[in-house]
């Protein structure tokens, strides 16, 4: 592939709704174009577990009638959507990428799915996830190069959006599971503030999130708001703040560079692309703040220096009992990464978990201290372009290094991946991280950065 953000044309939805109202297009025709793309690209990408084509066509026809009558249910009425196969749907199985859950069919909608249907969106199918949303990969390949990983755990959601099969897909992130696939597959993605979008049945972890992959910022934001206005955030959380209309691009005054623990492992080409982007940003009068310039940035860097290992310890403790049940009930179904998770969790103690929680809270306080020092943090969303699948076998990162993408999960902070960079003919996302509940602001800054960096030169 020869990807470049200035020439890539993603699939979008928001710009078709007026044609639906005018009669120049229809949700059914839009869906059929998506299905045509799926028929052409899915044999290689392998991003879907199951499709409900009949149900989708029925929903598209109902949406088309509403548009003809001038009464669409929402701004996303008629939009085909993929749902990560960790998230329950009433009309399709939820098999979680694991043989232990083959045929699992709860026959109920998770909160986000319920909200999407109430808004008139078309739930087209379930997208591939790594096993239980961790590291053991499924069959999905990268949307731009089938020899490369799509990332994980939202492998299918990232790939089907990147391949223009659907304009939007739902993902989830516990460590780096949305930001990394978005970066590898040229998606926009919003990993919201912790608790900002209702996780429904998936509330068993203290830093997991549900979010939205999309071909453009407008569809990403609108879908997120339509969901949250119907089902809110997690219980006890206020949900995503912001207006229904996508925020316009907003130039920041100051951006702090966040290197993360992955900086030393970053390849030269990706580092050069990032530095060139920072130079262009600074050329617009934005002050770039680095750790050498600001003790508060340096303090945050120190606090997240082992963010990946800290996150893994926390989540291993939180679900070791569940993995143990699974290993006993379904022998031989845990992949190598899940076996390591179980071993790590069983080696943990409650005292260590409490210590790790305090360490995480200290990092969050370090982030809060930066609120008056910068408008947002900027980093890469992945450690360069998607690696080749063959090169990842037997490594600790079978879906790619998560050191850049795990930080916002640990911090509970909103983050987006902006498809603004190209390295060696492959996409690399620019990550923008904000303060908790600053989801609208990071989206606005991300739109400004995209307009600057992805414009033809």
UniProtKB/TrEMBL annotation:
Its EC number is 6.3.5.-. One of its GO terms (molecular function) is transferase activity. Coiled coil: none annotated. SUPFAM superfamilies: Amidase signature (AS) enzymes (SSF75304). It is an enzyme of class 6 (ligase). The keyword Nuclease does not apply. Gene3D superfamilies: Amidase signature (AS) domain. Keywords: Ligase, Transferase. Signal peptide: none annotated. Belongs to the amidase family. This is Glutamyl-tRNA(Gln) amidotransferase subunit A. It comes from Bordetella pertussis.
